[in-house]
Amino acid sequence: MTAQAVARRMTLPTWNALSFSLILALAAQSAIAGRVASWGTGQTFPASAPTNITAISTALDHGLALRSDGTVFAWGDNRIYQTTVPAGLANVGKVAAGEFFSVALKTDGTVVAWGANDYGQRDVPAGLTGIKDISAGHGHVLALRSNGTVIA
Predict the structure, then answer these.
(1) Could you state, in order of their start, the residue ranges of all structural domains in the chain?
(2) Which one is the CATH code of 6-151: 3.40.190.10, 2.40.50.140, 2.130.10.30, 3.40.50.720?
(3) End-to-end CA distance of the chain
(4) What percent of the chain has pLDDT over 90?
């Protein structure tokens, strides 16, 4: 990686005197563009993973990468199927990793979620459309509509 790499670091709160951190970097330099480097908590980005990555997101023990073709690559802890990307998921414009769940914003403004559902974080409201941004937290998802309203 070079100084031209764009890094995203997420340090999670301390639980039982342990602090977890997973760091991802998405290369911006043309020679290595679209490649991901990861370190921390043993969640190494698989060597066999695709290199055409345009965006990344990370949570407790898993990561999501958005490919340039609009599909999603996921890796890491899969104990609650947070890295089991739904079959046929395509036309994705953004990804957000939550704690033990994952969310994708499709280019048509709809949202898809998978993984844990202990707080209802996988239950996308019926008829939810017109979304332009998403964010995932511990057990919740926020969606920003094109008109500026937030859905929690």
Answers:
(1) 6-151
(2) 2.130.10.30
(3) 37
(4) 58
pTM (predicted TM-score): 0.77
Distance (Å, rounded) from C-alpha 16 to C-alpha 149? 37
- For residue range 57-115, list pLDDT tens digits in order: 988 888 899 999 999 999 888 999 999 999 999 999 999 999 999 999 999 999 999 99
Task: Name residue 26's amino acid.
Answer: L
CB 114 within 8 A of CB 101: yes
DSSP per-residue letters across the chain: --TT-EEEEEEPPPBTTB--EEEEEE--SGGGTT-EEEESTT-PPPTTS-S-EEEEEE-SSEEEEEETTS-EEEEE--TTSTT-PPTT---EEEEEEETTEEEEEETTS-EEEEE--TTSTT-PPTT---EEEEEE-SS-EEEEETTS-EE-
Q: How far apart are CA 47 and CA 6, in angstroms?
A: 19
Beta bridge partners of 58: 63
**Amino acid identity, position 67:** R
